[in-house]
Amino acid sequence: MNIFVSTTQARKTLYPKGHKCLNFTTLTQCPFTLYMGIRKMHKHPLLSRLFLLCIFALSALAFAQDMPSSKPEKLGLSSERLQWLDKTFQAYVDQQHMSGSVVLAARKGKVFYHKAFGLRDREANAPMQPDTIFRIASQTKALVSVAAMILQERGQLHISDPVGKYIPEFMHTTVAREQTDGSYTVEKAKRPITLHDLLTHTSGVSYGYGPAKAEWQQANIQGWYFADRDEAILDIVKRMAALPFDAQPGEKWVYGYNTDILGAVLEVVSGMPLDELLNKLLIQPLDMRDTHFFLPEAKANRLASVYTPLTNGGIARSPEQGTMDAQGHYLHGPRKCFSGGAGLLSTAEDYGKFLQMLLGGGKYRDTRILSRKSVELMLSDHLGAIPYKPGSGFGLGFRIVKDLGLNAELSSVGTFRWGGAYHSSYWGDPEEALLVVYFTQLRPNTSIDDHTKLRALIYQAIVD
Q1: Collapsing DSSP states into helix, strand and coil, what is residue 153?
Q2: E strands within 43-109?
Q3: Rounded to whole angstroms, how far apart are CA atoms 464 and 461?
Q4: Beta pairing, strands 184-188 & 174-178
Q5: CB proximity list for 81: less than 8 A, separation 6 or greater
Q6: pLDDT, tens digit, 9 for 90 and up, residues 139-177
Q7: pTM of the model
Q8: pLDDT band at residue 29, thresholds of 50, 70 and 90?
Q9: Based on C-alpha coordinates, what's the Rg of the chain?
Q10: What's the CA gap between 417 and 201, in Å, rounded?
């Protein structure tokens, strides 16, 4: 805070009539302006010292903000072979399969590929940029899962704890058992749901479209979208506890509100709203400066627009309000409901820092976020005999590759991955020291093969 006050004081002293030249970019990138500024301030010794401290601090911060980069060849990849990735993703834009995208890939902690394709906003003819901000939806789950592990390391919770310890409404829940005629009966849960169940999506809680979907609809709790809610996530989760779930705890992998419930637990445990907690534990320590639940107004012109594929080809802009594809609530909504399962906005580089922390055994550069052992636990399969996708398991927040042949995609054993409802995706490959972040904004997204091609085009470029 003092740094920014000092900057303001310096500007008033140097330019008493409100001149705009003295700004962060000018000060850190123009040595002549900096030199002249210091000379003008020689009559103000204390202010001069504050000014210099400000500049050096901000300059250091500027360099710390970016992930380091390197030429592909120095990291065991081929620039020539990466051109196939350029051509393929430009073709998706040219053929109007999508408006645009950003791809970031890093190996051994250094970025070797970070490119933007197409347009951020077709109607405004605004180009996509590497620092464009995207709705990342379910990629939020990974950050909340890591936050839970941080609180475990601090002794504030344990993942074996029942959810009811923190949200009493969850101590006794029910399950809807579907009958052959399409009806269902409601039975008591055999045991309390645990935080471990939430992390592994084995709590039995779906997105409200199971056997008791009519009850979920009546309660106005269905789907992953919460940005339009003028209600705290904890209040919604408490109401959710009274509804019949889809499966008994620990018996089935069911994708749903697990991480939203987990986020509400973290709010109770920490005594902080989820946005403040994530800022404190992850976003600020990793300098994920463009990661938010709701976008600051000053960054509105960097948010990518959402598009919908048309039946006969091409794409159309999604509506501003009224649906889960809505554009506007992340900018102009109530800013009250922090969805731990699907609420964040971010950039490719911000998310790359987070993934690099996991690949680094819980450490990014000189910042320790998690212990190596906690990361190992997160990246292990926790499903055991519970059925899941062939060749894969599920860890504490991620899908984990267990068998290359059964997984049937270019990858490595131990790779962790997930994606988001707006068609974004990521993966981290510890064996290859590789991470990839892919952001676009496309819903629904069943008619495009970009995810599978991206994996092939990244891995085929490895030549060491």
Answers
A1: helix
A2: 100-107
A3: 9
A4: antiparallel
A5: 460, 461, 463
A6: 999 999 999 999 999 999 999 999 999 999 999 999 999
A7: 0.86
A8: very low
A9: 24
A10: 15
